[in-house]
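Entry 14. Ran structure prediction on the chain below.
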Amino acid sequence: MKKITFCIFLFATIISVAQDKKAYQIFDKKGKKSSYQKVLKAAEKSDVVLFGEYHDNSIVHWLQLEFTKDLAQKKDLVLGAEMLEADNQKQVNQYLNGEINQKQLDSSARLWKNYKTDYKPLVDFAKEKKFSFIATNVPRRYASLVFKKDLVALDSLSAQEKSWIAPLPIAFDINLPGYKSMMGMQGGHAGDKMPKAQAIKDATMAYFINKNRKENSVFIHYNGTYHSDNYEGINWYLKKLDAGIKIVTIATVEQKDISKLEAEHYNKADFILVIDEDVTKTY
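Output, structure tokens:
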């Protein structure tokens, strides 16, 4: 009787596991399964968390909000995002301080089309907790200017315009794999202007992250995963500004099978968030 009961229990357990549909799994950089709690613990000891995302992935946006709320119970925070540009900091501050409402922010700042669903909850959390929220990205018109006319085109900008960009001249290393791979885009005709346009974004985000860090706080930065994958991009520029800075990087990838990290994603970040490729997109 005991044997039959055990077999029934084992069968029920197997069926339950088979029916358990997980949306994501976290791995460490070596491809070993990790956990949300380990990410939180590492973040608590860091100066900066670079939370790389896929902009249209509903699970990563949910996790960013939950992660921020949970870390806020342990540490003071400063928040910042690629999705807000430095010349809109005034409007962001006005919103955080209750001087303008959402409709006024919509009309006065350049907000992404998925702002209300994916980034407004983070900004509103900062408002509720009285955390700073930093618009870190370079105004897109200057990245476009670099793409068209190279980095030297930034030298002719006014002092006001330069205040929205990392101090010039910025360091640029075309041999960084991420930038080097961009040169092969557009049928191999992209040249070095595309990676330079990417670099001015990365350098500017790193500059405003570093500038707005606070003692005994963690700066959580939300950015497209490409901007911090493989410890390049924002991470590389932050290390140039402060070699001793403690950074935790989180990369996002999508896979059909989330039970095992595909080898190509090893060492992409300290933690790799693997999300089921069928997860609903936000746009």
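Residues 15 and 45 are 40 Å apart (CA to CA). Will compare against last week's run tomorrow.
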